Amino acid sequence: MLDLKLPDMAGQDILRWIKQQALPCGVIIVTNHGSVDTAVELMQQGADDFLEKPVSAERLRITIRNQLEHARLQNLVEDIQTNFERNTYQGFIGASLSMQNVYRIIDAAAPSKATVFITGESGTGKEVCAEAIHAKSPRSKQAFIALNCGAIPHDLMESEIFGHVKGAFTGASSERKGAASQADRGTLFLDEIGEMDLELQKKLLRFIQTGRYQKVGGSKEESVDIRFLCATNKDPLQEVAAGRFREDLYYRLHVVPLTLPPLRERGDDILTIATRFLHTYAEEEGKSFTQFTPEVEVVLRHYSWPGNVRQLQNVIRNVVVLHDGDTVHMKQLPPPLNGTLSDREIQSLSPAIYVAETIEPIAKVDNHTALDDLNIRPLADVERDTIQQAIEFCDGNVLRAAVLLQVSPSTLYRKKQVWETDEV
């Protein structure tokens, strides 16, 4: 809120400076030295609104609320534009806001040598994330070595990381390079690092701190240049508290935390990913699938997906392998998805089905029929109810609601703003 007559300088000069600096704020001019010409000139210079003193509290409240709502809608539009620009990224598929945040962290962290600690449920794409960080880093032309610490027996894990010399243990018939040597000048990704035993964690800590190690059974110390990435599907702090993960190693590795969202929290990404899998597997299997029925889309969108993207991938492959056609129907889904929602629940979630079943055609109207008997409502009320139902169905995603209603997103934003202003 800016007055024009100030003791030390003119309000116009401050407005000009705000716009030159591109400060992220709205400007409301408040003055008793104004006129219509002044207001027009200030609006052209970038002011968002103009209030003449004395200003009533109600008028001021409405003006400020409108400015805040305008800023909120502008941010939504920017997020939508970002979503269109980043609906795929280095092996990831998805334009949800949670994934946009993942993409931004990868962009920021990849150029450095800092260790990235990736967490997320099983099947969320932790190795895809590690590969993306490597691909965006200056080490992208060097080796990317991934080790799953939960899949390798504990007594062989040290040899897998550091290698061994001939005769180091029974079966070591020749010298072998470990992941540390293979990843020199590149990236070493340690997946499920919480499964590593405590004694090896101690050796790993020293290796990360110094960049030096010894092969199993060897006496010569070797030096390498490695960028470390690690991941776990458990809460690392709980593992530290339980004594299963060394605290000093945790703080050494936990430089840049990155949490991958579960699939159930990624909104319309579910349908985007499912469609991509459907097209890919249909081509591989020589099938003709291209789309899902609306009922199947509702089920896919609202299922909890405990196995995340990996489970969705297996479900779509199952459908493509066992069935054929151009459209996936409910009966083709494997358990438990084919029993996830009843027909009535599906209809309650789908605006298209809801409208089809609840709006009955009027066969005949004569002059003696009372309007009340026809249950006729103002068109504006019907429109508002339909739009609100669509937005609720899409979990607040206005863009998705606009697609379902076949209207421009800007139309929905404009109508929402009018309704919310009327409620003030």
From TrEMBL:
An individual GO BP term: phosphorelay signal transduction system
Database matches in InterPro entries: AAA+_ATPase, AAA_lid_NorR, CheY-like_superfamily, Homeodomain-like_sf, HTH_Fis, P-loop_NTPase, Sig_transdc_resp-reg_receiver, Sigma_54_int
SUPFAM superfamilies reported in the protein's UniProt record: CheY-like (SSF52172), Homeodomain-like (SSF46689), P-loop containing nucleoside triphosphate hydrolases (SSF52540)
Response regulatory domain residues: 1-68
Pfam families, per the entry: AAA_lid_14, HTH_8, Response_reg, Sigma54_activat
Positions carrying 4-aspartylphosphate: D3
One MF annotation (Gene Ontology) recorded for this entry: sequence-specific DNA binding
Superkingdom to which the source organism belongs: Bacteria
Key words of the record: ATP-binding, DNA-binding, Nucleotide-binding, Phosphoprotein, Transcription, Transcription regulation, Two-component regulatory system
Residues of the Sigma-54 factor interaction domain: 92-321
Gene3D superfamilies for the chain: 1.10.8.60, 3.40.50.2300, Homeodomain-like, P-loop containing nucleotide triphosphate hydrolases
Protein name listed in UniProt: Regulatory protein LuxO
